[in-house]
Amino acid sequence: MRQAAAADLLVRERILDAGARLFAEHGYDPVSLRQICEAARVSKGAIYHYFASKEDLLAQIVISSLTALLDHVGRELTEAAGAGARLRRFIVSQAAFFEAQTPHFRVAMARFAQSGDAAQQEAIAALRRRYVRAVRTLITEGIAAGEFRDVDVAAATRMVLAILYWLARWYKEGGRATAVEIAGQHADLMLAGVWRR
Fold first, then answer.
1. Is the pTM of this model over 0.85?
2. How far apart are CA 150 and CA 83, in angstroms?
3. What is the CATH number of the domain that holds 72?
């Protein structure tokens, strides 16, 4: 029974990975379920066993990616002391997650990624609110601790989000610097603007 459940999970993950790769490369609309079946090496019936539709598959990719991202960043933040170090760790650890899960991350951040039924849309919206709130909290804590200047929290939050969103859009593997290195440079520049001198 346990082996069957593990095999079941592996097939589902294979479909999620194939969908994420194809959506990240081509966008949502051009990709067919047949292409996802071929990439995942499963039948159409197998896809429908796990997902109600292509839209359901997309929603599940986004939900699982955002959940994994928040879990990853949360673990990383426990190892950093001080608001500046924690904010830098947030930015750099997200870039590390992006390097490890590039297709999933790109799909989760894409414009077409608001998908699924009402419950899935609310789950996606709640995860995104939690993500933005994490950034806002780090900045607010830095101001309260006296590490950061009394900056506009909303503007600083948008700056952090821009660093992370745009890295996912234009970064190409094999360049002069890794995503983590670039994120670290951007984090240092951003922090230079908010440190209390």
1. yes
2. 14
3. 1.10.357.10
